Amino acid sequence: MDAIFHGILTVLNLFLIVGCCVVFTNAVEHLGKIYNLNEGAVGSILAAVGTALPETIVPLVAILGAYLAHADVHVGKEIGIGAILGAPFLLSTLAMFVTGLAVLIFWKAGKREHKMNANYVVMFRDLKFFFFSYTLAIAAGFIHIPVLKYACALGLLAYYLVYVFRTLNCSHSQCGESGELDELLFERIFKKYNTFLVWLQVIVSIAFLICFAHLFVGQIKFFAGMFNINPLVLSLILAPIATELPEKFNSVLWVSQSKDTLALGNITGAMVFQSCIPTAIGILLTPWVFGIESVINIVLVYLSTVLLFINLYRDKAFSPHILITCGAFYVIYLVYVFWKLI
């Protein structure tokens, strides 16, 4: 009965996260319009950071919660490292797959064109920043001198500030103008429209996303104990699926509206954020040492990123078929995990 209850609670979390995504994407577009931000900044910073908060909270809750509750700190750190490494992995594989598949589905349904119109400047900049920040974060795992590890963490934080500065200062002509917007959802409730109402909708949707991420940590611990699975492996797979749902569903919503820069910038911007902020937390609060499961995960992230780089460099645009191919790396890791369990 406990397993059924926790399973239902997990599924309920997923549906509630989807609802929050609809509210958040609607608000963040209006926020970009109010502050006259380019399309790249809206997708890669506002949307990416907002929806990346849950997966940033998960490792913090898992690690600090274990200390505060006097629980098994080792399990908390394993879940924390798994959630931190799992986020870029899921974004570069499964999130890309879902977005590419959505493009083909909406194209077949006659709701959009087959070609993706994501801004080349925004996409290439995001992938370039991600590659270097992720490499620095992984390199820190092989450094055994504490001072140098902490220097890497500080370097990642500074690097993200550079990324934000570069993104915000990208001209509208280079990074795109925001298109037409749907009515603000809170406007239908309060019958008015102002900056405060837009910010209120953003804050409320993010608050609920964080709440559901907190609940999901408990589900991971329960199922890890029930099935006697390494919590790091389980968190590498399950934690990012729930906490990265905002990026995936936000992107599907934007793809359906042919807003490809927002759709993909939401993912690539989150990749940059995940490789800088949560990894810095991991370096500071955990041993940040990688086992074989983590190393395989890291290699697959690099393979997927290189594939995206080649596609973007060659065609100056993303192909939905290449995005779908990225999903193969996620399947490879699942096969490896199940093989290990068997």
Mind explaining what this structure looks like?
The chain is mainly α and 342 residues long. The protein has a single domain, classed as NCX, central ion-binding region (A middle domain of Talin 1), CATH 1.20.1420. Helices cover 83% and strands 0% of the residues. The relative contact order is 0.22.
Give a brief outline of the structure:
This protein has 342 residues and is mostly helical.
According to DSSP, the number of beta strands is: 0
SSE pattern: HHHHHHHHHHHHH
The assigned structural class equals mainly alpha
- CATH fold-level topology: A middle domain of Talin 1
* Helix segment tally: 13
Which CATH architecture would you pick? Answer: Up-down Bundle
SSE blueprint and pairings:
Layout: H1 2-34, H2 39-68, H3 73-108, H4 120-140, H5 146-168, H6 172-175, H7 185-190, H8 195-227, H9 231-243, H10 245-256, H11 260-285, H12 292-315, H13 320-341
Properties at a glance:
342 residues, A middle domain of Talin 1, 0% strand
